[in-house]
Each structure stands twice: as C-alpha cells, then as structure tokens.
Request: fold
Amino acid sequence: MKPDSYAADKKGKTGLKRIINAFGYSKDGLKSAYRHESAFRQLLWLNGLLFVATFFFNFGPSTRILLIMASFVSLITELFNTAIEAAVDHTSTAKHELAKRAKDAGSAAQLLALVLLVIVWCISLWREYGFNLF
Reply:
C-alpha cells in the first residue's frame, strides 16, 4: 500500500495502537451481534450452559477442551454468518440469486457447526458414561 493512499491513512495504525483498536472493533462486533442477532444470543447462552456442563461432568482434560472448542466453532461460525447477512443486506435487500446463495451458504456452515457440536457431545457422553443416545 502506498504510504499516501486513502487506505493507508485508514489502516495506518501500527504496533500497540493497532492491537488496541482491533480489540475495540472486536468488542463492538460482539456487542452488536448480541444486541441485534437473536441466533447469536441463543447460541451464546446455549454454549455458556454447555461450557458449565463440561465441568459438571467428569470429563478428562482432552475431552473438555474438545467440547469447548466445538462450542467456539459454533459461535465463530454464527459471527461469520451474521457478517455475510449484514454485508449482503447492505448491498441490496432485493431478491437476487447470488445473495440467496451467500446467505444459504452461511446458514449451511452454521448447521454443520451445530452438527459437529452435537456429535462431539454425544460421543463424549457415550465414551465417558456409556449413554446410549441413539
């Protein structure tokens, strides 16, 4: 990027200032998603309960971290899905095949993240406790 370009001016922060700014933007993104997206709020509460449950059940450390990672994957995926929807809606709210495909792909990614979460929990409970869930 040229040092005198508009983009360089906007992204010109370096070092600690850039890290501090990035943290603020991330915090704003989480607050916005919680405030405006019911799906994110629901997933946050669900995964909060699952996080507590990982310590309620007598899982080993490897199983516990895997369960926590699967929860974070579902939250991260929902944030990406929310970002895709916001960007598409900002561009146009008119029906368009490409907009539908973008939104549907984001939704499908979230579905797969939730399927992963369910599978990891089912396998973990079956492995540790022999629960026959199916």
